[in-house]
Amino acid sequence: MNQLIESLKKHGAFFAPAVPSSQMTILNMNLQKIHAAMLSIEFIKFYQICGGIKLGNGYIFGPNEFKTGATHPIPSILQINQELTNISTLRGKTVFGRNDLFWFTFDTTGTCAMTDNIGLGILRKYDDIYRAIYECVAGGKI
Amino acid sequence: MQWNQTIAEKRISDMKMPDMPITQIKPENSNVPTDWFPQYKKLCREFMRSLSDCVQELALMNLGRDEFMNLLMGRALPDNLSFRFRIPLIWGGKLEIENMFMCFTFPQSQNLDRFIIEQYGNETIWLPNPEKKIYLPIHSTISGNGGNATADRLSQFAATMNTGYAQS
Does A142 contact B41 at a Cβ distance shorter than 8 Å? Predict the structure, then answer.
């Protein structure tokens, strides 16, 4: 985890502030309501250290929306998934990141996946969330 | 459900991009070159450098001087901007500047992804295909209460470009 953050810091990534665990309980309830996957323990730990990441056009959505400048705020993970409730392939999954080429999801077992951004076809699966997070934001660095 | 033009236009309008031209394609999977990713990165930089013919759109994007120069020099993409393919590579789109456009990531590019994903599996797909290399939704290009902000920004950028190119 620290290794990931250090490595991304060197590349100039922006990190949103950490989020208390009480907020994650509410977030999980809201994700469940929209039939998305709930946060795994690893994701909860991650958000307790960092509430979202932006590097180039690679984004990890956080429990809260965040801003990196005067531009449009980066939506929260709940806002992103609320807009996707009509997409049946995302039932039981949560979109947690994106770059210009791929979306990143996790499912109810906590397994992360890289998907294409035209039909959400799974291109790669990850047991290690940090590997998935790294590939999501690194793919956004042009 | 297969979308017709009316449904596609309604959907894109619901996503607050009523002025986005759309084009219909029959998606057929095609082979993507194995080295597409390094080629894509190179193309993004070339695309940025090619934007000197879009000064009017750039003037409306409220970029700072450094952001503007870094963009036109192909060095860095300003915050909240995304590159998109008009026709995705997997459906036969080429790795060419003519097959790309740029728009804000949030909310536009995120919504354009949704627009395509919602149609996935249909026999034909409606794709966003803006006229210019930069797409700005109409509500962001309407100026305020009179004034000459756009003209001022254009003069500012013209001066910045002259200084920047003279320095490089």
Answer: yes
